[in-house]
Amino acid sequence: MTPPRILVFDIFGTVVDWHGSIVREVSQRFPQVDADAFALAWRAGYQPAMEAVRSGGRGFVKLDVLHREILDGLLPRFGLDHLGDAERADLNRIWHRLSAWPDSVAGLTRLKSHFTICSLSNGNLGLLADMAKNAGLPWDCVLSAEVFQAYKPDPRVYLGAAGVFDAKPGEVMMVAAHHDDLAAARTCGLQTAYIERPLEFGAAHVKDVSPQPDNTWHARDLLHLADQLGC
Amino acid sequence: MTPPRILVFDIFGTVVDWHGSIVREVSQRFPQVDADAFALAWRAGYQPAMEAVRSGGRGFVKLDVLHREILDGLLPRFGLDHLGDAERADLNRIWHRLSAWPDSVAGLTRLKSHFTICSLSNGNLGLLADMAKNAGLPWDCVLSAEVFQAYKPDPRVYLGAAGVFDAKPGEVMMVAAHHDDLAAARTCGLQTAYIERPLEFGAAHVKDVSPQPDNTWHARDLLHLADQLGC
């Protein structure tokens, strides 16, 4: 297989640690709250919220809006229904300031020396730009579902990223910690790299990170991917 | 006036030297051609080509396509009609590898330490990402007419950039070497900074860079802008 020239990265769980970041901030702000359950509940609303858009039942709205709707829905369950609008808005921006996994900045920096590297996330552009600035993620270009007005695994996102660079799908490689994202990318003709993130859901919920043979590469983390790709 | 939190930059002429870059490459490839006239003719096709999109007569097509059409139209005039498709495609990608003005990387780096900095160009995303990688432009986010499917001075571009960051228009400042771009941004409520680029069209065609009082700032170059903004 010809090496790719563009690497596109899933973000939540793959490049940044959403669970750990939310647990840390929620624990600090609201010591009485089960922060692990809170983080998992917020994330659990993610796919159903996007599904309303993917199914065509709702026009495209950016992920900040969906995150806020999910948040508003779960606050009563955690005894936080008294939070006002400004505090909710600030809490919602947790997703803009998620911490990178320890290998991410160094791994991306090495990969950037050999490839064009872009985010390709369901997160919106402003979220991804704020996150990159905060965490030091050195993207060549911030790409997002928002650019293509469709959420992964809609093929328009994967093929749209290739189109941005006038690239054939096989010249692009999707990098993700989720086999379903990679399977959808593969269906569009992209190469795929799986990144093990066993602690994506926290140490109490270790994730199965077994290899699946259909992926082009399988790596422990982004440094290991850089090793394998000769960066 | 409240300081902006996001700076958006025009690119061609403001951050990169399109005229000098094209003259250098064309002179080297085709010593028999008047490279100054060639660069000016290519650029002269730019506004009319976009106008076909802006007027609604043509759906949005990215600038790479328009640049190629203009190029195909002017090659006969310069005795280069014999160039094949691959050579034309490569020549067209000059716009992806334009050189930055000498102050741009240092100026942007200083501005980035205080503000979110984004391109906001009629160039397409792939062009801008390739250019940033090649010239070392440290964008927080690459924004383009392509994202908003409209060409400046269409208000959707300026207001779209503010929308990406959930910002009020006055929280965004457009930075450009062209008063018409700044005037359109100002109409949308953005702050404006004019950058003098007297040599944008080459040393044989020095540009009037007189201040216009409606702009929020007026700077010799991006380092001078950084000085004035306290970076």
From TrEMBL, chains A, B:
Record-listed E.C. numbers: 3.8.1.2
InterPro entries: 2-HAD, HAD-like_sf, HAD-SF_hydro_IA, HAD_sf, PGP-like_dom2, S-2-haloacid_dehalogenase
SUPFAM superfamilies: HAD-like
Top EC category: hydrolase
Transmembrane segments: none
Coiled-coil region(s): none
Catalytic activity entry: an (S)-2-haloacid + H2O = a (2R)-2-hydroxycarboxylate + a halide anion + H(+)
Keyword annotations of the record: Hydrolase
Gene3D superfamilies: HAD superfamily/HAD-like, Putative phosphatase, domain 2
Entry annotated with the keyword Glycoprotein: no
Pfam families: Hydrolase
Key word Cytoplasm present: no
PANTHER family, A to Z: HALOACID DEHALOGENASE, TYPE II (AFU_ORTHOLOGUE AFUA_2G07750)-RELATED, HYDROLASE, HALOACID DELAHOGENASE-RELATED
Purpose of the protein: Catalyzes the hydrolytic dehalogenation of small (S)-2-haloalkanoic acids to yield the corresponding (R)-2-hydroxyalkanoic acids.
Family according to the record: Belongs to the HAD-like hydrolase superfamily. S-2-haloalkanoic acid dehalogenase family.
Record protein name field: (S)-2-haloacid dehalogenase
Organism for this UniProt entry: Hydrogenophaga luteola
